[in-house]
Amino acid sequence: MKKLSLITFGVIAFFAVVAFSTSKKTTSNEPLKIVIDAGHGGKDLGTTDESILEKNITLKLLQKIKKLHNTKDFELIFTRENDEFISLEERVKIANKNNADFVISLHVNASNNKNDNGIEAYTKTNNTEQKTISFVSSLVTELSFNNSPLQKTEMRKANFKILRDSKAPAVLLELGFISNPQNKAYITSEKGQEEVAEAILKSLKKMK
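Structure tokens predicted for N-acetylmuramoyl-L-alanine amidase:
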């Protein structure tokens, strides 16, 4: 991913405190509709490192999220559940057609610098929704409890289609660098994937 405008995690944490203390949580009994988008798929491999394919990691993360989901506070909607190609237009259409309350697009990263590591969280360029910052801060906090190698976090703004055209607040998560040995070992392991999935679900619960 190209480097765009950067917010340090310290700023994320500050705004998260403000957001959690001032933002209005829904009081409706209706469950929140959360769209989980497993990036890439089918002919679109995503980033690769030897035999490691981004499309497979994102699908496994989605499957872990689906398996561990055990609350009626929110309904999960998936853009894909198999190794199939789904266009960016169709992904956005799924989110908007279902009147999503929040969209999470799952990805992993790669870099020529093997020292690059951690999470990159992207939001739309004109984003003013504190819900997204709160979610990312909570996610990193949850992962820190497990001494995850994904604790370093950068929050950036981008004009990606899933962010730009989704009517709901949306975040694109680059969940580690498969070019970094520690990140790759973690995000391709059953333990790492379950911890990330659990952290995402716990962070979503805080939105209700």
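The domain at 30-203 is CATH 3.40.630.40 (Aminopeptidase).
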